[in-house]
Amino acid sequence: MLLSIIKYGLLLWLSYVVWQVLRRFFGGSTLHNIPGPPSESLLAGNLARLHGADSWDFHKSLEEDFNGVVKIHGLIGDVQLYVFDPAALHSILVKDQELYEESTIFLSLTGLLFGKGILSTTGNEHRRHRKILMPAFSTRNLRSMLPVLYEVTNRLRDGLIKPHLQAGPRELDMYSMLSRTSLEFVGRAGIGYSFDSLADGEEPVDQYALSLKSLTPSIHKLAVFLPFLPLVSKVGPASFRRFVLGLIPSKTLDALCRIVSIMDSKATFLVQDKNRSIRRGDGDIVENSNDIMSLLLKSNRTAAEEMKFMDDELVAQTSMIIHAGTDTTSSALNRIVHVLALHPDVQDKLRTEILATKEPMEHDELVGLPYLDGVVRETLRLYPPITAMTRTVTHDCILPLSTPITGIDGRRMETIPVPKGCEITIAISAANHNKAVWGDDALEFKPQRWLNGRAQGVTIRMSGVYGNTMTFVGGGRSCIGFKFVQLELKVVLSVLLRCYRFSVVNDHIRWKLGSPAAPSVDNRPFLPIVVERLNV
């Protein structure tokens, strides 16, 4: 039987390769005239540079040497597009979004890892998931979550940072501290569960927390196999796929399977535990809770059948929210602390604004601080946690351009015919750095460019949901938690800058590209920041 399974798998793999080769060489010819960097590999084209952890220079060259749409060489001669033209992005994300679906690899991966949730569904099913989840991220609910965010941040301040500063300023690994805090934010506000005491010397021992920390590195180790996920995910029932995976002698794959199993079991327990509280008459426990899961359970009780989440969907949403929210918040928090350490004048000005307010601030006062808002917006513009994402073209279509490009043959191109199946990279960083939109100072960190949530001097409209940037993208698959991320950043800064000053001695910190970007020293996750306690 094992031999038959192996033969069947090899046949499927060979068929997939042949189909891809034929499609790449006989389809997509309209794209070959678009300028782009030369292919660097017969097999992988430019993909190693495009997705490499140290490929910032490559992305910068795509931003500066090309004009809005760039041809990228993919696997086995495939032609893909790297897009940061405003009109093209509006078409992809908003106007014609039904023609540009989430990458099949991403959909397959999130479906296999978490189940059926907002990240792994498309079309009407995705719209249903989004419609049910959106109210949980309303301004009203964010206000109710604010005390929890302050409580967690105070534990970061007093439990993780303060004990190290008894003898004066000290260089601390803020990456570890802020990553733990990010998970606790999402745990408390997302599902009403505490993963970490945030106490010095007490490393988190929660199995879910440890599994979540290992999830992304495990996926990266198996990255070479990701292109085959759409095919594998359709082979037989889930039990058969698990059986086949169990036959593959891979320690990394075994570890990933254990991680997914732990996360699924924990999420299932949390959902069932809250449901049991409701059934046995402890409804007040949920009724008085403001975490996202409790809000969903409360709405489930009165929602129409077609608008209710089933238990397996609640489990999937739980894991997806925690995974996505933790990584992006951690990246943003680490980046903003690093940026302020590099810009002491900005940090001092921001501290002055914060010290002029009471502690803690109410929601409207906190989000209304103009310089704090400018610092957060400018950091997220210049350094978005997710630098790029992909879409797959579902039907032949025409991509409009804000600025015409000149083809390799010298022909002026005002639109681009894009064939079905083409992979498109939404170049988030490149769009946020586009000098045609942001001006010649687009690559400079200037919080003062923002006034009342708007960037001064910007006349070209971008389709993003946040401050004319593409940081949280736009359209029907934009990030539903972008206001929550902003609030987390503002709470942390409003608390920490009152009592601590951040600086760097030797800026040997390097940021690694990824989903999301992360700080690194000597190729290990690390953010060494000198922290000084202030007498205020």
Automatic annotation (TrEMBL):
Residues annotated for heme binding in this entry: 479
Known pathway: Secondary metabolite biosynthesis; terpenoid biosynthesis
Keywords: Heme, Iron, Membrane, Metal-binding, Monooxygenase, Oxidoreductase, Transmembrane, Transmembrane helix
Keyword Transmembrane helix (UniProt): yes
Subcellular location: Membrane
GO molecular function: heme binding; iron ion binding; monooxygenase activity; oxidoreductase activity, acting on paired donors, with incorporation or reduction of molecular oxygen
Cofactor: heme
Name of the featured protein: Cytochrome P450
Family: Belongs to the cytochrome P450 family.
Main location: membrane
PANTHER family in UniProt: CYTOCHROME P450, CYTOCHROME P450 12A4, MITOCHONDRIAL-RELATED
GO cellular component term of the entry, any: membrane
Any Pfam family matching the protein: p450
Keyword Membrane: yes
